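Pasting as-is:
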Amino acid sequence: MNIIRLILLTLLGECFALKAGAQSADISPSARVVASGPATNDYWAVEDAAAREKLPLYKIIPAAKPEELTPANGFPKRETFLTWHRSHGDNGGERYSVLDQINRQNVTNLAVAWIYHAHDGSNNLECNPIIVDGLMVGPTPGEDMVAVNAETGVEVWRFEPEGRPAFRGLVYWPATTGASERIFFCAGQYLHALDPKTGKPVAGFGEEGKTRLPGKLEGHFGAATAAPAIFGHIVVVPGFEKDVWGFDAITGELLWTFHTVPHPGEFGYDTWDRTEEYAANAWSGMAMDEVRGIAYVGTGSPKPNFIGVHHRGDNLFANCIIALDARTGKRLWHFQEIPHDIWDRDITAPPNLATITRDGKKIDVLAACTKIGDTLLLDRVTGKPIFPFRMRRAPTSTLPGEVTAPYQPDPELPEPFSTHIFTENDLTTRTPEAAEYALARFKSADTGFFQPFREARANLYLGMDGGAEWTGACIDAPTGRLYVTANHIGWMPAVFRNDEPPDDPNAPKTAGQEIFENRCAPCHGANRMGIGFAPPLRGLRHRLTEAAVVTQIRQGKNAMPANADLSVADTKALVDFLFLRDRPAQPEPPKGERPEYNTTGYPKFYDQDGYPANKPPWGTLNCLDLNTGRLLWKVPLGEYPELAAQGIKRTGSENYGGAIVTAGGLVFCAGTKDTKIRAFDKDTGQELWSAKLPWGGNAPPATYEVDGRQYVVIAATGGGHLGGPTGDAYVAFALPKKK
């Protein structure tokens, strides 16, 4: 693309362009070089809010025309939905089953068929198991892989890899000419291939049944966490740190690499003024059109979260759905939801493939649910949106050096199943005390549509862990309805400048330090980095005058109490401590090329009793009709047992489980605070059945049939994002055997 074309794209706000000479769509919602206008070398400048306000309020990415929509090819066939050969059900990630023995009429009779205990420790599992020829295969808390008789729950084999195996998925590959059947999963630095019948490494695949992944190890996550997907004899693996790889399923040879952070000379490289090593990571998952050979990958934010001064630009391919030719790794198209993401709003859910009806015709689409409650609904071949995709003018940042994108997503259809904007009307009314507590802290935070961070001030918004999360959505294949679990919890991160020297633990305490530790440290932390809602006080001298600090100390503000009893001398001593004036002078650090910021991490917006500080529901199950883009129903998911005992029921809870849907008219999901698995009527959202698990079920269940009997199985090990006790169980449910 030449420079004249690039300038025109920026000036005209063009949102869709076809790369000349290739079937390759660049679907990007904002300008492509520097997110907020012309490049500048003044990395300490503050954005021009007045100039931003002159831009049109909305931009629209047009929907695909009827003649541009891809006709459905009739796949997957019904046989695919009789099996559960991949985590998320199949390569398309639909998590749909045609099994209907368990249905609306008899689900209340569902009972435990077996419980398997791994007996190798207790730890959180987040893997949807697979079922192959009567064996359930999945990881254990002790970081082994096991196969369990899917009818009885008796262990058949066990394999011990290096690293945590199948963190969030695995896949089965049937035998083909010249090769044996095998199960693929990632653990540590390797992609493994095991014989599903024996659990032994497959000879001839890599070295001793494993091949090295090119990505870096990222702690216990390893080099890859999500389930691979397969086209023909090519295994596609999304990397946790970044990048996507294609391997030969027979030999383990690395066939291709796609860089999610482009290298010099590659498409998208010019959307970064400086690339990051760990960014645009493909941790959330992928899907595969196993007929067309198209791999679809979702990506995370540019990193580091909340701080964008070191990577100005739209930052492709962060926050994208990327379509790749599974044969070569070549990019076919991409769709970026959020350019220059500074809020940690990854595309968290693995994409789902679906077939829907538009203008009386069946078409093949891709759906991707996101943290902010959007569902990206795109043509599977071209990447064009099915409905017009609206972008809204976004506010500018006041942080020196930050350059925000001028537009961010604000779609009308499909209807959002959650929101990311926290308003005063959302504040809790659970008790008068909780309401007062929440209001005081709300007033100390910034809120709004894609509100950028202000220095050392909490930024309150919903959706840090969804909206949708890695547990994703499921598709009712016959109807084109999507079911997705969602969180509705507030978060209050902050960004601040920290150029203060480290405290000397051997230095005698000054009068101001002692006052600080007595009065201020319980909220702001002994290291002055802030705790929860309380802002950091490091770097305070850069953002407030002495007079303003004295006034706030004595009079208080929002949630901060007044200290009117503090003497003038003690107030001065405290301010001297906060402004670094009561210790030997340190030379001011040299001004760097760009500002350096720290963050306060991920504090949740909870009330004084530890409950979300917004009104319920705090977690929901949602049904979206992809044919029309309309929400059909939304119901609370989960509750707090102690609140239910007080009569406060159906609050919903933060959840990390994910749903499956069956031809029996049921949606199953777990992952809630009350550690229950539930079944809902897929047409109405009515809860029909629930059962208490031994520990929380923090992954989607799976369903399968053995000898004419249908089962629903789930990993139930607790812990994870919700905390709480951990265990080592898989639990299977079935209807009682007929006598």
